[in-house]
Design goal:
The chain is α+β, with helices and mostly antiparallel strands. It has 14 helices and 24 strands.
Length: 501
């Protein structure tokens, strides 16, 4: 079989993709018009929000590893001869020609203009398969999200793209829960080498020992099943339910998003009485001036300290989601104690629970860590006198990433920088940045609290590593007592911004 390649502007691709699909997707008694309609509906949905100046390279037949796994596990066992090949679409922001892929001088041109890829599979109930799109491929700014680098080939040329993986469910081998698990593991396995890829058959095998019914055709999963699979893949997941955490529920959600961790979210459509699983991968870029104004003028009560301390996690934000029923990077508003997710299309969902795939060495989870910092503020360990309003930004990160940013921050004073970069820190730390409205709008912090995220809260000072604010730096990890306190004014420094890009 010969691979066919077609290049066209994005506005002209539907009839051209349909021509490929008639050769690849049609089987048995399936009429041509059903194939055409499936392709048309899928592309109309996927193209929503995409730039209309893109160019597309269409290739078929294409062997996709995820669909081929589903085919071997399920479709090959049917009487009907289901197709085993797919179609791949690759997107570019500049005009391309077939000859560009055979010219070594054009390789950098192809890489610079590459915007992502989409696999169309022969599952006519939903043909949108594995895809990774750059946020730059959309007219409207996507926001700040978790993303990593994926390598693919287009017409035999290796190219890379940064984004978050997305796919629609095929409703037979993958429902929404299996699709979210695949996407989570696709992201982590590409970003960190110690995590493994997850294929549909692998997810099924992990679940078989705890399920009491057949696994094929795929069935919906409970949030505990999702957590079980993540734990089997090497995470130390935590489940947060609305019932158990109540007013802290949305604040914890925000805290983990700010930590750059993709979250599996269980949502409920009350009108249709249906549950669904999506992934929160980030948030819309924050307008710091508007956010400060919202915190000061809304009905949010500050923490019970003087001066008032405003928790950034209490603000309503617009989050970015990977939803297998929608195009990549859909958005919805959520927060301020209200567990209702309002999508851009006006539909409302109740967030009932979410699962955080924490690293297995993170033992101090968000609710305990935040409560610890709030107690430090209430007890005066962090002296706030002389400040009108204080804003707290709280997140989890690795000490390696944090030290990298500190070491190259042109605004952080040498004394504080030296204390942090020379300290022996755990693998993961909780960071609480303290700022005022004026400096927060400049993306500056006035102080910082560091906690050991690998230490369970078993003693009063156990997780505390460092407090730097106002006129002193207190290093609780210092080897000698006379080195623990440094009496120097703490000057404004850059906020940490590396969790989301």
């Amino acid at each position: 079989m010969i691979i066919t390649t077609t290049i066209a502007p994005i506005g002209d691709i539907i009839p051209k993709v349909q021509a490929h699909a008639r050769k690849i997707f049609q089987y048995g008694s399936i009429p041509v018009n059903q194939v055409d309609e499936a392709v048309k509906d899928a592309l109309a949905l996927f193209q929503y929000g995409l730039r209309d100046d893109l160019f597309v390279c269409i290739e078929s037949p294409y062997m996709d590893e995820v669909y081929r796994d589903s085919y071997s596990q399920y479709y090959a066992g049917k009487l009907e001869s289901y197709p085993k090949d797919c179609i791949r679409l690759s997107f570019f922001e500049a005009p391309i020609k077939v000859s560009d892929f055979r010219d070594s001088k054009r390789r950098s041109y192809l890489q610079q203009s590459f915007m992502g890829f989409l696999v169309l599979r022969p599952t006519l109930r939903n043909v949108i398969g594995r895809n990774v799109m750059s946020p730059k491929a959309y007219w409207e700014p996507i926001g700040e999200i978790c993303q990593t680098t994926f390598t693919t080939t287009v017409n035999c040329v290796k190219l890379t793209i940064d984004g978050f993986p997305h796919s629609a469910q095929d409703t037979e081998t993958m429902t929404c829960a299996q699709t979210t698990l695949w996407a989570i593991m696709e992201y982590f396995s590409r970003r960190y080498p110690h995590y493994q890829l997850a294929f549909p058959s692998g997810i099924t095998r992990l679940l078989e020992p705890i399920m009491y019914e057949r696994m094929m055709p795929a069935v919906g999963l409970h949030i505990s099943h999702v957590s079980y699979v993540l734990r089997s893949f090497g995470f130390g997941p935590r489940i947060y339910s609305k019932v158990d955490y109540q007013e802290d529920f949305t604040r914890l959600f925000s805290c983990y998003v700010e930590s750059g961790i993709p979250i599996v979210v269980s949502i409920l459509n009350k009108d249709e009485k249906t549950s669904h699983a999506v992934i929160c991968v980030g948030r819309k870029a924050v307008d710091t001036k508007q956010l400060v104004q919202y915190l000061q003028e809304s009905d949010i009560e500050p923490e019970q300290q003087q001066p008032p301390v405003y928790d950034l996690d209490r603000a309503v934000k617009e989050y970015v989601f990977i939803d297998d029923n929608l195009p990549p990077y859909s958005r919805a508003a959520f927060g301020n104690g209200n567990a209702t997710l309002t999508r851009s299309d006006g539909k409302k969902f109740e967030v009932t629970a979410f699962v955080v795939p924490l690293h297995r060495n993170v033992y101090l989870e968000a609710s305990t860590a935040k409560r610890y910092v709030e107690n430090l503020l209430a007890q005066g360990v962090i002296e706030l006198s002389g400040y009108h309003d204080v804003i707290l930004k709280f997140f989890l990160t690795s000490s390696r990433s944090y030290k990298d940013r500190v070491a190259t921050d042109p605004y952080m004073q040498s004394e504080l920088k030296q204390v942090i970069v020379s300290a022996v820190l755990p693998q993961f730390i909780w960071v609480g940045e303290l700022s005022t409205p004026k400096f927060f709008q400049q993306k500056r912090a006035l102080g910082v609290v560091l906690l050991d995220a690998t230490e369970a809260y078993t003693a009063k000072d156990k997780p505390l590593i460092l407090v730097a604010f106002h006129d002193k730096i207190r290093n609780f990890a210092a080897a000698f007592r006379d080195e623990a306190t440094l009496l120097v004014p703490v000057k404004p420094f850059s906020q940490y911004q590396s969790n989301l890009t």
